[in-house]
Write the structure tokens for this entry.
Amino acid sequence: MDISSTAEFAARPDHVYAMMIDRDYLGQVCVASHASAYDVSVTGANTKTSRTMAAPAAAAKFTGPDLTVVEEVAWGPDEADGTRVGTMRLTVPGQPVAMNGTMTISPGGPGTVLDLKGQLKVSVPLFGRKIEESAAPAVMAGFMTHRTVGAAWLGG
């Protein structure tokens, strides 16, 4: 299932990139997503968050009451205009769920646009598509947490 979303920030692309690789910022995103436990690591241009959260009601019968979501982003170099693309992978350990895609930071909107594009796949015979449809809003909500926390982080 295709996933696509956009967040805009009133800051330059280099400031948004610095935010996206800041361990404290990523920790705030985890807290704002109501994680009961989380871990954040940043190594150069690579980030990894692991968040344990309550499972969405539609998924809980398959996953149990909680699930852990691991998000890894490997950011590439910036282009002349400040655009930067990160290869993103989201997994749920122990579950047949994965999302592969990109996050792109580029000039636009009030300063910078952060675009998410990806393919969410649930590998469960017969029910995979239905689970993807129920999981997609949770993935989108998780991404939109970046918009809320990022606006506060960047001061507006």
In short: The chain has a mean pLDDT of 89. Residues 98 and 121 are 5 Å apart (CA to CA). DSSP finds four helices and seven strands in the chain.
